[in-house]
């Protein structure tokens, strides 16, 4: 597997947080993005409230002779956002944190579909991609053909759908069309290694969701009624520590199937 810490593109650089788990894979990827040699850095997802990690992010920016111009969040889950306030303090304060969900902002600037974030010549385009969470965003870095997907698409495995499955499936279809249209070169995820074949990765995600839906339908047809009962059938071969998360995911699938029927 690719080395995650230090991976990236010409403009994006990953600092891996030391918070590995079944849910966060190797840990959270904090992305530092800037134009080559620019002194303005945008930090995407400072990560958990872990001083060693946050200092390492700040030190990396410092080692470039640059400064943090802005912090943005792919979504509000704590493994991405909890360290944001502390990070802003560490770099001297005054930096805004922009997020879709107002509860995770610092400063009064929001962020919505179609926004273009600029810093020192850098351009990041904002796409709303709900599903993993209601507030999930994806950032498109056109200069590198890179898509920063947060937890909407991970470097391996599959993501948990906490929001509505219909939204998530729509986001995957939309990202696939977007990546095909823009000839995206790489996905830079919120966890795990980067993916240099975005369309293959998205097809894999879309196929996986369809398969799981078919399995859930079959489990229901076989008599399973609650999300837990479905999980016991469909996720029988999956580590039990992931079952509570799977239950969320299955509930979303049951809701989706009920809405459709
Ligand atoms: Zn995450």
Automatic annotation (TrEMBL):
User: Could you tell me which residue ranges the Metallo-beta-lactamase domain spans?
Assistant: 27-191
Q: What is this protein called?
A: MBL fold metallo-hydrolase
List, alphabetically, the InterPro entries matched: LACTB2_WH, Metallo-B-lactamas, RibonucZ/Hydroxyglut_hydro, Sec-metab_biosynth-thioest, WH-like_DNA-bd_sf
Query: What Pfam families has UniProt attached to this entry?
Result: Lactamase_B, WHD_BLACT
